Amino acid sequence: MAAPATAIDFTRPTAPNQDKRWKLVDATMRRLGQHPRGLIETLHTVQETFGYLDNDALKYVAASLRVPLSRAYGVATFYHFFSLKPAGEHTCVVCMGTACYIKGAPQLLDAVQNDLGVEVGETTADGKVSLLTARCLGSCGLAPAVVYDRDVAGKVSPQLMRERLAQWRAHES
Amino acid sequence: MNPEELDQIAETQREAESHFAHKVNVCVAAGCVSCQSQGVKDALDKEIAARGWKERCKTKGVGCMGLCAEGPLVSTDNGTLYQHVAASDAGEILDNLDGPPIQRLHCRTDIPFFQRQKKIVLENSGIIEAERIEDYVAASGYTSLMKVLTEMSPADVIQEITRSGLRGRGGAGYPTGLKWSTVSKAVGKQKYVICNADEGDPGAFMDRSVLESDPHRVLEGMLIAAYAVGASEGYIYVRAEYPLAIQRLRTAIRQAERLGLIGSSICGTRFNFHIDLRLGAGAFVCGEETALIASVEGKRGTPRPRPPYPAQEGLFGEPTLINNVETYANVPAIIRNGGAWYAQIGTEKSKGTKVFALAGRVQNTGLVEVPMGITLRAIVFEIGGGIPEGRKFKAVQTGGPSGGCLPEECLDMPVDYENLAKAGSIMGSGGMIVMDESSCMVDVAKFFMDFCMSESCGKCVPCRVGTYQMHRLLDNVTKFRAAPEDLTTLSGLCELLKATSLCGLGQSAPNPVVSTMRSFGNEYKSHIEEHRCPAGVCGAGHSGGAR
């Protein structure tokens, strides 16, 4: 009698390093039955714990869930929420939703791109600030909105934003 | 859990509430939280403790009260609403609980913004504590589920929903009863119910607000749907960008499981239903049902041709019911009050109410729920309070990147699915952005095309290449580099995308262009012929937006 499909010999890969945080990733994969359909949820856990998805993480998750590396990479790059490079010490997300757009979000971006010397999606050379945009935060009542690290600020002006970013950059840590 | 036990929970909760002489509600939905409303609540709690009032006064962290731009909002039990409340106002609010409202903070509620609304989906928002299931139960929560499980057959439930005339609130307006009936008749080993909470339209925050303010309502709607179609597993696909909604949904699911309202043999019947969350990862196309299903399966969110529709072959190839958050949120009220009651509200073909997220250049921005058939003028000028700074109304944009811009001539049109479509827009999920003379309509069309271009999944050529070409043409118009014949090319591309794209994203991507070319053709003309932007937004080095 042929062995059932589940009996195919499969050695679970070992985590890329000794970091305890891999246990969180393993827990997510276990909860979802170590099944390929858990790929996105697992990548969410990786990003939440490590801040971004690096090559080692993608290889480890792909091997553990038995999905081709191409598919893991495909999923990671398809969705905007996943980031393949580490963020700066602080992140600043400018909402570019419709309400924010017509209330001056492009002017906010212009102002800070100039000040920071970076384009959207980049991090300043000193590693302090990453500048990002969002499709819509759903804080349209407070347009234009900006997220400083995790705090949403509403009715932001270029002036206010410059001051906040200057504080971050001046602060030694 | 049975109906008596549920009544008991409601009774205990009401009894506990009645001991308090005063209740102060603080909005802790995302809008107010980002203006530090949690700090206001903490300050009130501290002040209550300091005064030794703990036995007679309590604060509640409630959901959205609607007027998001004036937050943090606080309401007291005599109906007074306060706006722009700071933590330092806590003492003064407590001092004046029995007296007249504090003038400095008072927000009048006799204005059309509050008076012209009709709340069904949002009936508990701003009143109950989203994180306490007892509060929802005390507000008649889960009684519809009990009614369905003890008194109604699945066919009865579908009949009631059909009678109500409820249509999909995600945007397309497909009759909900018909969808449920198709899934219930489909044959499969296992059926699924999915809640689409991937609110991707920029300028829309209705679903986020419902999930943050009244998550149990959505769960109850899903449970009733699952019973009606014979499903035993459900997923809520929610945007990862909504951390507060995710946290409250997780709490709500855990609470409902603990009370035996979600799980196996619910209320001692043979009905089983489990709900799990799946987080979106920032792809607009995942609002399309087949793309959403692919994403729940852990794959790239690309749509596939229909048929087969998800009702026949959906998640993991099994029959699947997909509805939007607001659609499910209507269900408990329909079951409680009857389909006939719901069908009285609205117009002939669009029944009930619709929640809109009113934003942009309008006085009162926030969340409103209005009966179908209300005019756009009433929404923008009465409820919305008109355009600030004495500027002139130019257009109202509905339906996000799939919708269109409606000019002044459309303001007296009653809002329903058919009328909006006839006027060149769509109902969409409910984003409503008001624009005044400082917005350039070509620039707005370009903004949406930029959105569709970046969000195109790339699977079909018309959408992937067409949105790029259209964006380039629009960019030329805004930089005064376009030739008159470019408009013909643009119109041709609009028809092409509409006719040949694989999914709704590509098919509806031309809508903002078509509607602005139709209603604001003169603006395109000034850009091309006179190299002039009437709103003063565009130019060689323009970045867009408004003046």
Brief summary of the model shown:
The complex is a heterodimer of chains A (173) and B (547). Chain A has seven helices and four strands; from the N terminus they run H-H-H-H-E-H-H-E-E-E-H.
SS class of chain A: alpha+beta
What would CATH call the architecture of the largest domain in chain B?
3-Layer(aba) Sandwich
Radius of gyration of chain B: 24 Å
Biggest sheet record of chain B: 5 strands, mixed
Key phrases:
heterodimer; A: 173 residues; alpha+beta; Glutaredoxin; four-stranded mixed sheet; 7 helices; elongated; B: 547 residues; alpha/beta; Rossmann fold; Ubiquitin-like (UB roll); 4 domains; five-stranded mixed sheet; 14 strands
Give an overview in words.
The complex is a heterodimer of chains A (173) and B (547). Chain A has 173 residues and is α+β, with helices and mostly antiparallel strands. Chain A folds into two domains: 14-78; 90-170, Glutaredoxin (3-Layer(aba) Sandwich), CATH 3.40.30. Chain A is built from seven helices and four strands; from the N terminus they run H-H-H-H-E-H-H-E-E-E-H. Chain A has helices spanning 22-31, 39-50, 55-65, 69-78, 98-102, 105-116, 158-170, and strands at 90-95, 129-134, 146-148, 151-153. Chain A has a four-stranded mixed sheet with strand order 2-1-3-4. Chain B is α/β, with parallel strands linked by helices and 547 residues long. Chain B has four domains: 19-112, 3-Layer(aba) Sandwich (Glutaredoxin), CATH 3.40.30; 140-343, NADH-ubiquinone oxidoreductase 51kDa subunit (Rossmann fold); 354-436, Ubiquitin-like (UB roll); 441-530, Up-down Bundle (de novo design (two linked rop proteins)), CATH 1.20.1440.230. In chain B, the strands form three sheets. Chain B has a five-stranded mixed sheet with strand order 2-1-3-4-5, with helices on one face. Chain B has a five-stranded mixed sheet with strand order 11-10-14-12-13. In chain B, helix 8 (154-164) packs across helix 11 (215-229). The radius of gyration of chain B is 24 Å and the shape is globular. In chain B, 57% of the residues are buried. The interface between A and B is large, with 45 and 59 residues.
